[in-house]
Fold this protein.
Amino acid sequence: MSTVLEIADLKKLAQRRVPKMFFDYADSGAWTESTYRANESDFANIKLRQRVLVDMTDRSLATTMIGQNVTMPVALSPTGLAGMQHADGEILAAQAAAEFGVPFTLSTMSICSIEDVAAATKKPFWFQLYVMKDRDFVRNLIERAKVAGCSALVLTLDLQILGQRHKDLRNGLSAPPKFTPKHIWQMMTRPQWCLGMMGTQRRTFRNIDGHAKGVSDLSSLSSWTAEQFDPKLNWDDVEWIKNLWGGPLILKGILDEEDALMAAKTGADAIIVSNHGGRQLDGAPSSISMLPRIVDTVGDKVEIHLDGGIRSGQDVLKAIALGAKGTYIGRPFLYGLGAMGKTGVTKALEIIAREADITMALCGKRRITDVDSSILHKD
Ligand code: GLV
């Protein structure tokens, strides 16, 4: 493809370059994928207000998320297995984000470890925590994130058990991949990907491998999750983690007003309105449709971020207009990564920044910090 103009172009390229099981892992939601689809389609239903003859010079998308400067209010979401979209994927995405001036969030379920990413980057990144039954392991992960200089901990609240994604089960997803004829075929038809993977040692869950006791089967994400993720996680544990960590804390996975109130009471620095990209409770409402209610309920108590369904700079603007202080992209950067490695992640960020900038101008605003619900068309 000669010209990459939008995130959908990167998605098409990634599909050609990444083995099916890993491309599908990113491009999947739970069960019927209705929430995954709604995350995107509900954004499309929000209309913008066109304004004219407003001075459009000297525009800026710069703002802050949890008090940290960002060149635009878009962080990279924590995504499992990014290092299977492209060799050393988490390192490349973290470098691209740092160079662009936006936060990168490393998932607990990453391929490159906290230490791998810290060694390859100069700016602090954020670390996303899943809570395991083995609390020593959790303590250790938090300690490792501190030693690496991570500048926020993103605690995921909505994945105590794993939602069922049909594509992953049908594909027999694992990291490292199994060597069945089907999987070998999927990889052989992606020679560039294979070459990259042959050039790195990072092919398994390196935050866990060699660090966790009693992990019996690392090869299967779903069986390991079912075995190790703590289904008893509760609000007292949030307090315990907050105290252990002692730094900026972001709670991810709030989709309900009552939960938002509980989350605000913890004293966390921000909450992320999220349904885990439609990967957990299929049938839940889209993130963007819940944002206004959550802003009404706790907007004066805690900073509110949003993830789920953002595929363009217009979507970013819509989320900011509805009260989010920051947003996250998961699939858009994974598609960029799968398509072209670090260059593709930078491309995804550039596309979104350009769209956000032009949209802001055509809505009559010059600063993202001035964007509010006045840019939305109301019937
Ligand atoms: C893990 O976070 C997943 O959604 O697969």
Summary: The two ends are 39 Å apart (CA to CA).
